[in-house]
Amino acid sequence: MKIVSVLEHYELLIDEGNDPIQDPPQLQAYMNRWDGPSFFNELNPENKIVLEIGVGTGRIAKTVLSMGCEFLVGIDISPKTINRARSNLSSFSNIELVMTDIINYNRPNTFDLAYCVLTFLHIEDKKKALSNIYNALKDEGTFVLSVSNDDEWIECGDRKIKLYPAGIEEYVRLFQLTGFQIQSIQETESKYETIITGKK
């Protein structure tokens, strides 16, 4: 089994035809375990300028755009994934897709809301990522993070990808160290995700 980088993994997923927006209902239900009703209730994106960290092929962005956000910026490290998201979200004009990662993204005091589902498991320097998110938010801006319990490696077919898991206590510490005021911490009924909401 070969070890690949996160970028290689997500590029390969597109090559393999993996696009959650195109998934059958059973697979969509599986993915929704990490961003079900509790997650979307925390977002409340209507009339807000929104940042999605790890937009992927646009699965969550499609719902957020349909919920009436004013404008959405989605970032992702994979060119092939961004291109697929651009195609999947082509019916929306109030969106910008940017190929970058949150460690290097710098757009201060821009967003009312930022959110991230599962992407933080790929981020080693979580403090830097949270600091960039904090700086990207306007005063009173909100960040909603959905995290899962993971091992240090995931396997996908013939490849392995290194992860950087952290416990909820560590996330809370980093949120507070960055300057976020914790608004809520909730474990969903599915037990697959914990949602942490912080306010600037």
From TrEMBL:
It comes from the Bacteria. The keyword Cell cycle does not apply. One of its GO terms (molecular function) is methyltransferase activity. Residues 50-141 form the Methyltransferase domain. CDD domains: AdoMet_MTases. One of its GO terms (biological process) is methylation. SUPFAM superfamilies: S-adenosyl-L-methionine-dependent methyltransferases. The keyword Zinc-finger does not apply. Keywords: Methyltransferase, Transferase. Gene3D superfamilies: Vaccinia Virus protein VP39. This is Class I SAM-dependent methyltransferase. The lineage of its organism: Bacteria, Bacillati, Bacillota, Bacilli, Bacillales.
